[in-house]
Structure formats: structure tokens, C-alpha cells
Amino acid sequence: xxxxxxxxLFKVCSITLLCxxxxxxxxxxxxxxxxxxxxxxxxxxxxxxxxGFADCGADSTCASNPDARLPGPVLExxxxxxxxxxxxxxxxEPVSLMVAGQSILPTPVxxxxxxxxGPYSSGSYDFTAPRxxxxxxxxxxxxxxxxxxxLYGAIIVRDYPGITYDREYVLLLSDIDPQxxxxxxxxxxxxxxxxxxxxxxxxxxxxxDTKEILAKEGEKVLMRYLNAGSEDHVMIIHGMExxxxxxxxxxxxxxxxxxxxVMNPGQTQDLIINTELLALNLxxxxxxxxxxxxxxxxxxxPGGMITxxxxxxxxxxxxxxxxxxxxxxxxxSRYTYDxxxxxxxxxxxxxxxxxxxxxxxxxxxxxxxxxxxPAEGSPGGVYPVT
Length: 386
What we know:
4% of the residues lie in helices and 41% in strands.
């Protein structure tokens, strides 16, 4: 049967943006976390069981039982302040909490690098935030198993003296071996010697689900890299240099520009990109990816550790859609279009996407992904979408 083609006409009628305005901010030094199970869906549709840390907000009992996040929530604390973490363990085995390279209380006991909290129990940790920098927190118990399952996250200790930047992004690198995750979820043993990752993630997402990095022309952007995975990664941004300012929380005495960032397992590095260095085509996109080519999803390219650094031209002053839609669809096949909308006056502000007119069965999710499968036998033609 000859597949009919459908021309899709897109109209932009409105984009609702919610701008969160605050007169000031107070640093929270107490966090309430829950270690629990969950699921993440990869771009190819595979659902992977995880363990992860969930943010319980102000509730130290975690009575709302929030779902696991991958990675765990970003924790922030001023340098020199005490960071208190209440942890509710809803997993079937002991879990602990450690910050790489830092002393943490209570005193380590047993097989863990830190104090363990038993299954379906609760406990607390505290440590004094060290010098400003980016740090990795993770389970200190049976690390090969529990960190691979997703028990990790980032800590930001503020703020670097003498280092200025306009905005920042956390890029937490990790990997997933789906057979390992399936075995653990089923209560079975898994031998680490057979570790074989199939998905490589930036902030818990594999391309094309990774979030873009947005910056305005002329801005300095602090890139906080962390590697919670089991392999080295070499991160590069096409057309951009990066200047290292800290390594594992240690300030770099003589910062140098580099085209590549080598990330070892457990390592953190902070680098600055300067959009003023771009002489031409400032309203442009620059691919950030792993040069070791961990850029597939189950061996299908493209995928994995890929995202985009997008520099917004200073001439853009109003709400704009930057992405270009696929303008045709085929009956019986899924059509997708990832809408990227920005407010140049509030790049980090959340964006709400809606379809005010669309075809039957067409949906748009909270991230702006339009999805539609034209029914078999539908007539070809032009289908307007707003």
C-alpha cells in the first residue's frame, strides 16, 4: 500500500511562561531524602528499573513517599556551613550516604564507607561543607551495585571567590546496564565482571531526551561536570573552548583553555565557557558530546551523551521558538517534534506547552514533545497545528 504523506502547518499562537520572581533567597542546609525504587524510560522506549534518591521537601518523615529521581536532587550549601541530610531508606537492603573525599558523620561501620541505615529505616547524616566547588554524593554501601542502580547526585558548595559567571549548569554523567538493573529489580545476583552498559546519560537522560544548555550572547557559563559512571568520558563542545577553574573541588591555580574535558569515574570538574569568544553566528547551536563515542542507545546512533549548547542572539528580545518542526508525517508511523521555546529575559524559567488546535490523537508533553500517529487510511493533506 502506498503510504499517504501529510503536510503539517504549524502556527504559534501562544506560549505561557511562568516566571518565578524572588526578592532574595535563603540557603537551605537541611535536606530530607528517600532512597527508593523507580522506573526510567529510555528514548527507545525501554523501561529500566532504578534505585534513586527522592526529595521529600520539608517533610523529614517523607510521608508523601515521592518517587525515585535519576540522578538525585541537587543539594546546595554555603561554604563552611553544616549540611544535614535526613534519609529514609525504603529499599530492601542497607543504604548509606557519602560525599566523595569528605568526612561525614556518624562514624563509618561495617561494610560501608559511612554509617548504614537498614532496610525500611531512617537515619541522619551531617558534614561541614568544604571549600566551594562541585561534589558527588552517593551511597557508600555496596557501591558497584547501588551507584549503578542510581543512588547518586550532586552537591554544590557556594561560592567561588573571585570567579564570576552569568549562569551555571550541572552535567552529571552516568551509564546504565539494563541487564544489571533487571537482575537487581528481580532480587537476583549480578556479576560486575559482565558489566555492559547500553545507555549513557547526562542528568539521567539520553539523547534526544537530554536538555539543551542555553546562554545569551556574551555570557560566561559555568559547567559543573560530575561522573557517577564506571567509565571515563571525554566531553567536547564543537566550536567552543572551556576553561577549567576547579578539579574535585580544588581551585586550579593556572586555569587553561581546553577543547576536551576528560572525566574519570567519581571525578568532578568545573569549567567556564565564554560566548564572547564566538566571532560569528552567535545565534547558533554547538554540539556537546562524549568523544569516546558513548553516543548510542542500545547501539543505535544517535543517542547517549549528546546535548546542545545554544547561544541566543542578543537581537532576540521576545518569547521565541528556536526549533524547526518536521513538516510531514506518514500514516501509521509515529510523528514527533520537540518544541524548544525560550524567554530571553528568563532562560531558566519554566515553559508551559499546550496545543490549542491539533489533530485527533495528537499530544504534547510537559517538555514540549509533540507526538502523533496518523490513522491508517487517513486522507493526505495539510493539517494545521497551533
